[in-house]
Amino acid sequence: MNKIFSFLFFIFSVSISFAQKDSLQIGDRYADDQIYASISYAQFFKQPTAISKSGFSFGVSTGFIKDIILNKQGTISFAIGVGYGYDYFNHNLKVEEINNSTVFSESLNLNSNIFTSHNLEFPLEFRWRTSSAVKYDFWRIYTGVKFLYNFSNKFRFEDNGTQFSYKNVSAYNNFQYGLTFSAGYDVINLHVFYNLTPIFKNATINTESIDTSILKFGLIFYIL
Fold it and tell me: What is the pTM of this model?
């Protein structure tokens, strides 16, 4: 946990160093280096037929993203960033790690079944906006791809009063990526993440492939 707070403090410090635009004049070349933070409602999709949709689930993320402007006005740019993301899923797939092998089954009669993950995020975006060097409130449309590296995952459930917990299961796909889309005005914007990779590798249940992936939609906040 201390490492996470240290990372967030680093992001904040870097953003303060790069995000100053007070001395710019209209027509000056500039870039919008930013802190981003998002909160999303999340769902599994492409679930096996034996597994129902996940319950209430969410994801949060934060990080720093830097502009590489493509025109003098600064209205079009490419951006690259780094951040941290946390996902919490209330789901219906029973996941166990037995003898260094991940075993999947239906979560029948389980009192709770929770999956959590911690990821490093590497967003790449193509950006269009109506900003200027001295205009801080503007419309934006950002689209791109986000790469994820999972450094911790945990599956835990309660079965007949007994708690089970499995950390960093072997079948988990640590490297993932998906499409992103953000649009809105000023600080608050709508945000969608559509994962293109399944969260498990070579996984099956009842001879059916488990191609479960993640869809998120919510709000993202950009702070100069």
Answer: 0.82
